[in-house]
Design goal:
Helices cover 47% and strands 16% of the residues. By secondary structure, the protein is an alpha+beta fold. It folds into 2 domains: 258 residues, GROEL, domain 1 (Orthogonal Bundle), CATH 1.10.560; 163 residues, GroEL (3-Layer(bba) Sandwich). It has a 6-stranded mixed β-sheet with strand order 9-14-13-10-11-12. α4 packs antiparallel against α17. The longest helix is centred in the middle third of the chain and has 29 residues. The chain is elongated, with a radius of gyration of 31 Å. GO terms for molecular function: ATP binding; ATP hydrolysis activity; ATP-dependent protein folding chaperone; unfolded protein binding. Belongs to the TCP-1 chaperonin family. It is found in: Cytoplasm.
């Protein structure tokens, strides 16, 4: 009788004779098999069908792992670890799953030959440390002193990421959009991507997606006579109620005559009208002289009632109400000025300025475009267009990954050669490192090195190339280029199957993505290798600690 059976005869247990290890390895290999065909620009697309019959087409590993119904505990653990990488760096989910599965697959050979998993784990941890050290030297620093060269590298990094998400022509179109968006909101190395508004409009073609230097609101002016297009407009950002409001507590009023009631109504109305008059006074103060033909736009987070809208319209002011709270900060960063919480504090310094404000109608939907010609604007909008919901969703997911790829370049201060160049260079480095390691731990180092090659292997397979021929030629070329540094690193040309210089081909990956890929993949694989028993934990649902139903005994 096992120890667990002695503690609980009814316990569920998987263990003995490497059964638990085989279960974990099998789950990792199965998950690897599902996602392998998605890797790279030539990866295939998966169709996800929900219980309600909704269909989603995607090749984004993060989306797949979130929406697939994974029930196996080991596969679920690997999926959560891989999606954590996407939360941190925005990319590398599929690579993480492939690397984790390959580490376990390589270790399985040695375990079946009788090698203890602890020895393999020790070798893998040594190999991981050596590879991370190698990565810290195997990168190309950004040259921020040369704007043209900097932009070329940023475009290449964004392009490398986007081509794995969407078709080539669309990826090339989106590349400049995401690079310009990040450069617009960049403040040194502090890049807040929340200042990039992503607006979706289901119309036209996916290639009509564009960057708007300013903000796009998903509603228009409420007054029927409001101007639909205004050039050179002052922008007042408000968080002040311009409508009649009820008292916060239940209250009642008693009038002795109809005249008293009329006076009460007039007093309540004058409270709101006084606020509107102060806005009109500010408009009259700034729109004078050579600026008398300038427009004046009020964008309010709270409501504006019809009477107030009419007063503003008669004064030549366009009122837009119920703006989303998340757009208030973006608006101030895009056009300047600051949000005002009280009309008592109105001052020309609080005003922003937009080169153009216009309304675009599409059926029953209205959109307000607030565009600025200022180069100091620190907020912008990516306007995503597409003929259907599937296309719009796919572009939105790709744009988010592209934005984070560009941001990672600034955060890391460098990029890593792509197209499998880093993995092959790290593989050769580990072979040299293995010669300095004594004993059976060498096998763990070898397993780690072989697992790294899963990336170029999968890229070749997904491109319809002969995997062995392409890999052998790539390794031979990398050996002759060894010692040349990252700018001489050799990757795989997915069109011809021949080796290419990743630096000259402008194929770059993010340093942080590779680092997380190495850390998370090796950690989860080594932990799973040391599992020798799987048992069901926790109390059974519906039972208390005395074995009775949680609702209590029946009467």
């Amino acid at each position: 009788m096992s120890s667990l059976a002695a503690l609980n005869p009814n316990a569920d247990r998987i263990g003995g004779s490497n059964v638990a290890l085989q279960m974990n390895i099998g789950a990792a290999k199965s998950l690897q098999g599902v996602l392998a065909s998605n890797l790279g620009p030539n990866g295939t697309i998966k169709m996800l069908v929900s219980g309600a019959g909704d269909i989603k087409l995607t090749k984004d590993g993060n989306v797949l792992l979130h929406q697939m119904q994974i029930q196996h505990p080991t596969a679920s653990l690997i999926a959560r670890t891989a999606t954590a990488q996407d939360d941190i760096t925005g990319d590398g989910t599929t690579s993480n799953v492939l690397f984790t599965g390959e580490l376990l697959k390589q270790a399985e050979r040695y375990v079946l030959d009788g090698l203890h998993p602890r020895i393999i784990v020790e070798g893998m941890e040594m190999a991981k440390d050596e590879t991370v050290k190698f990565l810290s030297e195997f990168h190309v620093p950004l040259n921020e002193k040369n704007p043209d060269e900097l932009r070329k590298v940023l475009v290449a990094a964004a392009q490398t990421s986007l081509r794995t998400k969407v078709r080539r022509a669309l990826a090339d179109h989106l590349t400049n959009v995401v690079v310009d968006a990040v450069l617009a909101v960049r403040n040194g190395n502090d890049i807040d991507l929340h200042m990039v508004e992503i607006m979706e409009i289901k119309t036209k073609s996916d290639l009509d997606t564009k960057l708007v230097k300013g903000l796009v609101l998903d509603h228009g002016a409420r007054h029927p006579g409001a101007a639909r297009h205004t050039d050179n407009a002052f922008i007042l950002t408000l968080n002040v109620s311009l409508e009649y409001e009820k008292t916060e507590v239940n209250s009642g009023f008693f009038y002795s005559s109809a005249e008293e009631r009329q006076k009460m109504v007039a007093a309540e109305r004058s409270f709101t009208d006084d606020r509107v008059r102060k806005i009109i006074a500010l408009k009259n103060a700034v729109c004078t002289g050579d600026k008398s033909n300038y427009g004046f736009i009020v964008i309010n987070q709270k409501g504006i009632d019809p009477i107030s809208l009419d007063m503003l319209h008669k004064a030549g002011i366009v009122g837009i109400r119920r703006a989303k709270r998340r757009n208030m900060e973006r608006l101030a960063l895009a056009v300047g000025g600051y949000a005002v919480n009280s009309v008592e504090d109105l001052d020309p310094q609080c005003l922003g300025f937009a080169a153009s404000v216009y309304e675009h109608s599409m059926g029953d939907d209205k959109y307000t475009f607030i565009e600025t010609a200022s180069e100091i604007a620190k907020s912008c909008t990516i306007l995503i267009r597409g003929p259907n919901n599937h296309t719009v969703t796919q572009i939105k997911e790709a744009v988010r990954d592209g934005l984070r790829a560009v941001r990672n370049c600034f955060v890391d201060g460098s990029v890593v050669p792509g197209a499998g160049a880093f993995e092959v260079a790290a593989y050769l480095n580990l072979l040299r490192f293995k010669e300095t390691v004594k004993g059976r731990v060498q096998l763990g180092v070898q397993a780690f090195a072989d697992a790294l090659l899963v990336i170029p292997k999968t890229l070749a397979a997904n491109s319809g190339l002969d995997v062995q021929d392409a890999l052998l030629e790539l390794i031979d070329e990398a050996k002759s280029a060894a010692g040349g540094g990252p700018k001489e690193a050799v990757g795989l040309d997915l069109t011809t199957g021949k080796p290419l210089c990743a630096f000259e081909a402008l194929i770059f990956d993010n340093l942080s993505v590779k680092k997380q890929f190495l850390h998370l993949g090796s950690i989860i694989a080594t932990k799973l290798l040391l599992v020798d028993e799987v048992m069901r934990a926790g109390r059974p649902q519906g039972k208390d600690r005395h074995g009775e139903d949680a609702e209590g005994p029946e009467d």
